[in-house]
Amino acid sequence: MTRHLFNRRSFALTALAGTTALALAACGAGESGGGEEDKVIKVASHLPPMTDVVTLAGEAAAEEGYTIELVQVSDNVQYNRLLADGEVDANFAQHQPYMQAFNEAHGANLVLLDGIYDAKVGFYAKAFDDIEQLPEGAKVAIPNDASNEGRALAILAGQELITLPEGTGFEGRVGEIVDNPLSLEFVQIDLLNLPSAYDEEGMALVYSYPSYIEKVGLTPADALLLEELVDQRFTISLIAREDNQDSEKIQVLRRAMTSDAVRSFLEEEHSATLLPAF
């Protein structure tokens, strides 16, 4: 949960932008009647390359006579709400800790199916290119959701910029910091809005994912601090519900999302930022 003591601004999540139906099935798919709707698999996602993976998986699903319909949303809330409410069959936009936090907060029954890729997260700095130049009292932008907050703090602790309680791992919270020798000021921001903080005057370090920081023309190669070891809990994964995880649709979707075509796409188009996890 966000700690208001450290919040310096408010970023409102945008509403659901709408849905984008992609015609990804073989000839005749998408026509109504005769049970064709049972061959449509709705998958919610929000940004490239996640949406690109869903699109590519649609080509594999078409070979089995299914259409994957991409339901594109505009924030990190709607894809889980749609899935929990049964409006979509699955989503692809998050890691396990984020899913678990949603389940606990909303009494949902989302389940992880397959890890698809690991993203190279890190901290970016516009004003300097060496961590030794980080000034005392510097502002540091980190995510405002608990799962990503802990991941960001773990990177800083690994660089001995802060000290967390022993055994904290990726579960750290700003309020639990034991030692902060540079008196860093933590500014907690919604994950989608973190790239905007990169251009903000006075913001020394900004945490972000490759798919988000790309908005300001950066890649993990530009990161001042990069996560050295990716915990598999943070793998961006395919998510469904307990009540549909064993359905034929979901089994088709799992095969499509872990196809050779998807692996090749990740390895050939995104090797600098992503690592296949299957």
Describe the structure in your own words.
By secondary structure, the chain is α/β, with parallel strands linked by helices. 26% of the residues lie in helices and 21% in strands. The protein is built from eight helices and eleven strands. It has helices at 50-62, 78-84, 96-106, 146-158, 194-198, 210-213, 248-257, 260-269, and strands at 40-45, 67-72, 90-94, 110-119, 122-124, 139-143, 185-189, 203-208, 225-226, 236-241, 274-276. The strands form two sheets. A six-stranded mixed β-sheet has the order 2-1-3-10-4-11, with helices on both faces. A five-stranded mixed β-sheet has the order 7-6-8-5-9. Strand 6 (139-143), helix 4 and strand 7 form a beta-alpha-beta unit. Helix 1 packs across helix 7 and helix 1 packs antiparallel against helix 8 (260-269). The two termini are 31 Å apart.
Summarize the structure.
The chain is an alpha/beta fold. 26% of the residues lie in helices and 21% in strands. It has 8 helices and 11 strands.
Low-confidence stretches: 1-35
Count of helical regions = 8
What separation lies between the terminal Cα atoms?
31 Å
> What is the subunit arrangement here?
single chain
- Considering DSSP H and I runs of 4 or more, what fraction of the residues is helical? 25-40%
Radius of gyration from the alpha-carbon trace, in angstroms: 20 Å
Strand content: 15-25%
H/E series: EHEHEHEEEHEHEHEEHHE
Summing up helix and strand content along with how strands pair, one would put the structural category as: alpha/beta
